Amino acid sequence: MKTFLLSFGLLLLTCQVMLAQDDFRIGGKLIYGTEIESIGIGATAEIPIIDKLVIAPDIGYYFPKKEGDVKFNMFEINGNVNYYFVDDETLGFYGLGGLNYTHAKVKFDNDFVGSGSGSSGEVGLNLGAGANFPIGKNFLPFAEIKYVLGDADQLVIGAGVKFNID
Question: Are strands 114-132 and 139-150 parallel, antiparallel or unpaired?
């Protein structure tokens, strides 16, 4: 959790530094991971580089999952680049690619085995697509799907809202 909070703080700091950029976006989202089979929350940003290309850092935290005596937590940090194939007043469609870091932690406690915990971090690649559905100038609901390739393979489906910061 400390690492998640530190990562979230770094994302916010990056966003503050980049506020001077045109069409800078920041937002929040709900996510679902098929491997962990849990929903979570996340924060995202878009920082323009050139026409149709943005850097898109984001983080996601999956709600803890408990099965019997085992509790499982997971979060991810992503550094993506989005390329907008379509970006107009009614639709923004983009492809995404980037790096992923996934951190998982398991705790168990029972009378037979005892108690213990373990954690692991994995690096992977993101490949996916997304779409923005602009409502007005500054309010952009969006949906996104990506596959994380690596030791922590999973499909991640997300939806949320981004806000233009001019």
Answer: antiparallel
